[in-house]
Amino acid sequence: MKRLPRGVPMQVYGSIVPGAATIARLLPQQANEARRGKSRALSKEARERYRKIQWYEEHGRRVRLTCRHFGISSSTFYKWLRRYQSGGGPAGLEERSRRPQRVRQPSWDHELVQAVQRLRERHPRWGKDKLAPMLRAAGWECSTSKVGRIIAALKKQGTLVEAPLGDPWRVSRPHKRPHAVRKPRDYTVRAPGELVQVDTADIRPLPGVIRKHFTARDVFSRWDVLDVHFQATARTAADFLEVLVARAPFTIRAIQIDGGSEFKADFELLCQQRGIHLFVLPPRSPKLNGSVERAQRTHREEFYNVIDWPGSITELRRLLRRQEIVYNTIRPHQSLGYLTPLAFLQRHYKQKTDRDPLAAARLPSYAQHLSTERRSV
Length: 377
Prior knowledge:
alpha/beta
């Protein structure tokens, strides 16, 4: 086989690999662009157009066949092909600006602009529909759309001072709270007391009679603490927090609430003093407090709907306390495998070496209620 002299480039006639002609033409151009640092990634539209041109190169460079295959017009394909072959390569297939070379120029004079600006600054809430008749009544020849374009141009230039859009009837509230924060995404509940959801509900047993029911639900053990007040204020919520800490058979480490005003001020301050984390929900998201919301329905159906309404709130609290004990120590819970919250906590702490000291002190007293109930059956 005869060898070529050294330094003589080999010539290839025809193409063996499909698309070889395109590759041979583009490789030097892309190499030069890479050396100049001008290489950049193509957009999705440019890559799609480049794929069509590659198909055109690989199938005999037939425009009609390519257009029928991809369902595009021949004029569109010829436009892409001209950009591609004019030296731009794949980069020439990028979308170009469609702005007209000659755009419409403003047809108003400076005096009209000043008149519109003075009238708009005098009445900052009036739009073009109200300003245009007033300008025409003052002797100016202008259409409503022209006044609108003048106002838009003044805004774009920054010469028109607009009125603030704030609502003067709504008092601005500070967004930052002294202690409450959003619950972190990686916050997980692994033990009793690590997340207690608290919520209130209106109880209307009789016309004109309204009571505020408080529920605290431990997410881990389904243990509930209940109370009732005449009003749901920050002071009564703080009192309920004291009741919760006193009755819960575990240490309260974090509480989750909604954005109600009763969970601010005194309630938030007391949580901060006791070292309890306070997580506040985003607006309009009661589903994130679904555990306590379900508890509210249970106590409404199993307690308030079946009792004879007492004559005093003291008697109502006594009955509600009885409901709390039954709910925590006697009533089986489907979500706990038909265990009571008391039995669930006893089994949980039996498997733990680092038992909560509050659980060791308070669980036996609740177990006495269970034994009393069993003797009465």
